[in-house]
Amino acid sequence: MDFSDIPEGHADxxxxxxxxxxxxxxxxxxxxxxxxxxxxxxxxFRPGLFKALVATKANRFMLFALVLCFCVVLFNAFFGPKExxxxxxxxxxxxxxxxxxxxxxxxxxxxxxxxxxxxxxxDSYGNGNExxxxxxxxxxxxxxxxxxxxxxxTAVYSGGKMSLGVKAQDFELSSVEALILLRNAGIDASxxxxxxxxx
Length: 199
Fold this sequence. Notes:
By secondary structure, this protein is of the alpha+beta class.
């Protein structure tokens, strides 16, 4: 569509303004890079991905922030708290679950491993004092519905390694929860652990 024939408004008694545009004249005073661009001599700059990420201060800052966040997530994944392990007053507790593949009935084993006592154990319970540990197991399916409830094991802990384990028939079980009760003359406590069953 040609707009050259459309009259533009102007005041009465005045002649309309006429604009003349000359690209060559404008480019005479333009910087060399602009003249090269219009002549087609300038090639488009296509940096690599890394060069683009570090091209400006803002890009470098964003790249640094992304790398820092990634490192924090990795560190937390490897060294952060795990829902199947905890140390309570110097008593290390770990819930482990696994399937016993050679069993014809398809069984799942859940074991609470109690490790060697740490220094805090003697501070909390005194040397030679024993702690009664009771582990109550609940087996859950993929919908987190309880399939088997309240399988229970009890033992007396005096600072050395020991384990409390139960087995259950595999009815498409996906995880195990263990409520661990610790009882001593002056202390009643509970610790809750959860572990997914490996396939």
